[in-house]
Design a protein that fits this description.
- This protein is an all-alpha fold.
- The chain has 34 helices and no strands.
- Helix 3 packs parallel to helix 5, helix 7 crosses helix 11 and helix 17 packs parallel to helix 19.
Length: 576
Amino acid sequence: MRTPTSPAWATQSSKPRDPAAADPAPGPARVLRLLDAARPADVAGVLFDLATLPASAPENLIHALRAVALPLAPAVAAGVLAGRPSAAREVLACRLVQQPECVPARTPALAEYLSALDEAEAAADNLRHLTVLRLRTTALDALRAGTLTAEQVVEHTRPALLTVALGVCTPEEYVQPGARRATGDMRVLIRDRLLAELDTDPDRWSAVLNASGRFGGTLPELLRSRESAAASDRRTEPVSGFRDFFGGLCTQHNPHSLLLGLAPRAVAARYLESIPDLEQLHPRPSLHRWEWLLGGGPLTRPLVDHVLTRGLAAQRRWLARNELSPDSVLEHIAPGHAAEVLLRRVAPPLLRRAAFRSLKRDSRELGTWTHGITGEHRDQVLDLVWELTDDAVLLRQVITAVASRLDEPALLCAYGALAFASGPEPVWALELQRTGSLDAALPAVRDSLLTGSAGPLIDAALQVPRRHWLDTLSDEDHRYQALRTEAELDRTGHFPREELVAAQLDGRPDRWREVVRRLAAGTAAPVEAVIREVAGLVRTPVVGVARVPGATPDLASNGVAAAAVSAPLCGHSRIW
């Protein structure tokens, strides 16, 4: 058996690895896309700057609206439709008519939200789970539109777990403009409230975690309640309401997992150690905490570290199946859980190869697993065979299992990998077995026979176009890929771009104005680099005033339009 070094394959992903940065629109359109990360209170002022600052003022906003990919963040759409110039409103309205799925939902202001909470509280117990999920959607849409603030949601939302769940950005929400900023604002505020009230007291943290599932009041009420402040014996079995308001065994906005991620590491580790292991659990569904924590999202560092260091086989199996598990986690788990890795929708070629290596050398078993990645996923088969060129026996078994299901170009590419690994003879034998006659063999196989070398097979294989493994993922799987990172395990606040905007631009109209000027002028620098440069150049006090379209410019202010005092976007009349 030869052990060659596989040639580098020219496959580069054509899709952006981060859906949040998927819009390539140049110039002014970059401003609108950056507003996905802005707080809604700043949106009106930025739109005013975009329509007034440069020499071709109104055309900038119109050009941006024509070039940017829809949907826009709800607060941005509302700001355009409520402001000037009228031509910009017409452009956006026309695009929304053509793409009605991008029309932002009508969202409640505080009074209507409170009424919705009252109605939900009266819902029947058997509908409680669905009612809470609908409330979460309503609250998140209002946060994105700016008709509710994070402070209002924390103060009034009940149950408390619903508030915590709003700090989780699910894969589906990750690609929704404004959702990353809204969930990040909630996570920052929740973290600050928890640390202010509970500090590093492990007993109070445990009490909050245990009581939160059945607590019907708000988060501030939970933190001040007798249950969370009591210093009773914590060695007793936690209360049964661990997940009362979120009934499914798999949810992508698991509030208890987020609470563990926001807790001090020592506190979270102690709490996880207090949860009984699987074999000690009573069969009541409310006690199946491990499956609930590990089956969905978000995954957090304390939870993952606990499972990797002392987790049982079933706990590691749930983690291996979780589509949000990062590659580094799967590398620790994969050797003993090959089946779980192969069943994943998102599995990089190196992990898939390691999983195949740990399977039994049974051709029918190999065929079962490889059949699942043929058809529209044929590029994943090609990734796999070229990752197995250092094990010619296993490689031949895989090719034999899938040969009848591959199209001719893909089969030729697989033959090239086998010829590269062990010479042309195994390829001749497989092709004879497939066709029954070498006269009917693929041209590259006949050329290899005539020359007696593997060269024609390898050369022909390298001419077969292959997609990067990321490009084989569906749009839904790409959303998971964006969130299955090491950084996401440790995130306690905003995503990186939203964190930069919040720290350097929130409430600073002068900095926003300079960022708008540079981006609208067509700078090729990354948006983050522009923000950092502006933040280092501009040193002015924070101003919490928003500007509205149509404000009268102040000619005494260095020729730059001054801010007109206005309330943040709120109420239905200003949106739709």
